[in-house]
């Protein structure tokens, strides 16, 4: 069964450094999403992406965040200058055209020191 | 604004007994409702959804959920719990009338099934 994959599974970085989280959505899906889950808290929406542009973003998704689909398979989330409070599990999700359910990857645990 | 409440942090049930995990929602229009399950160190796995039609929807692993519009609830149920059902369960909602595609999640309910 096709799955969303994410790399790395765990990323440790120093405050102020840039990180790129990578996702490979399910191959025939055209809608892509990033969510995050701070330890012990709710899963929160960050951004959705369709047709090579952001279609929706939350107030969390400020100027330090960006997303890109650099090729036909990858979907990335970049955090330009990480802060301690960016430490969280980041989930990528994708959705097929015409469907309603989003399929999630296993997540990348980001630890900012 | 769309929101979801899961009033129970944890639900304990004995193996073989029926289980219910509660969820209530708030949207301005007609909701799209979802249940996801998260096993340790894994992502969110889609269990089932309600979009329209029958209020009782069936999903993966023997789970079902009942949409109740008057009570704005979408409780997850299973007739006979398994130890392997122990996990974290999230309810989520989307309000299609707003044009938003983002899911809003509840805080999660940890299900513990005792042998």
Walk me through this protein's architecture.
- The complex is a heterodimer of chains A (113) and B (115).
- Chain A is mainly beta and 113 residues long.
- Helix content of chain A is 0%, strand content 50%.
- Chain A has strands at 5-7, 10-13, 19-24, 31-37, 43-50, 53-57, 65-68, 75-79, 88-95, 103-104, 108-112.
- In chain A, the strands form two sheets. In chain A, strands 2, 4, 5, 6, 9, 10 and 11 form a seven-stranded mixed beta sheet that branches.
- Chain A is globular.
- With 115 residues, chain B is mostly beta strands.
- In chain B, the strands form three sheets. In chain B, strands 2, 5, 6, 10, 11 and 12 form a six-stranded mixed beta sheet that branches.
- In chain B, β7 and β8 (64-68) form a beta hairpin.
- Classes of the chains: A mainly beta (113), B mainly beta (115).
- Chain A binds chain B through residues 4, 6, 31, 33, 35, 41-45, 48, 55-56, 58, 91, 93, 95, 100-107, and chain B through 32, 34, 36, 41-46, 49, 51, 90, 92, 94, 100-108.
């Amino acid at each position: 069964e096709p799955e969303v994959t994410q790399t790395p599974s765990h990323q440790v970085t120093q405050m102020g450094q840039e990180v790129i989280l990578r996702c490979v959505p399910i191959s025939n899906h055209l809608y892509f999403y990033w969510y995050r889950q701070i330890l012990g808290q709710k899963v929160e929406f960050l951004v959705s992406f369709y047709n090579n542009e952001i279609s929706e973003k939350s107030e969390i998704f400020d100027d330090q965040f960006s997303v890109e689909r650099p090729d036909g398979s990858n979907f990335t989330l970049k955090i330009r200058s990480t802060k301690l409070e960016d430490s969280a599990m980041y989930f990528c999700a994708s959705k097929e055209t015409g469907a309603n359910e989003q399929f999630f990857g296993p997540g990348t645990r980001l630890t900012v020191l | 604004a769309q929101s979801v409440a899961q009033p129970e942090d944890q639900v304990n049930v004995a193996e073989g007994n029926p289980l219910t995990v509660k969820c209530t929602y708030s949207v301005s229009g007609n909701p799209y409702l979802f249940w996801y399950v998260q096993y340790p160190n894994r992502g969110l796995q889609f269990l089932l959804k309600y979009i329209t039609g029958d209020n009782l929807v069936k999903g993966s692993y023997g789970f079902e959920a009942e949409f109740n519009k008057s009570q704005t609830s979408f409780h997850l149920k299973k007739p006979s719990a398994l130890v392997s059902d122990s996990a974290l369960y999230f309810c989520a909602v989307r309000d299609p009338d707003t044009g938003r595609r983002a899911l809003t999640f509840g805080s999660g309910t940890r299900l513990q099934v005792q042998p």
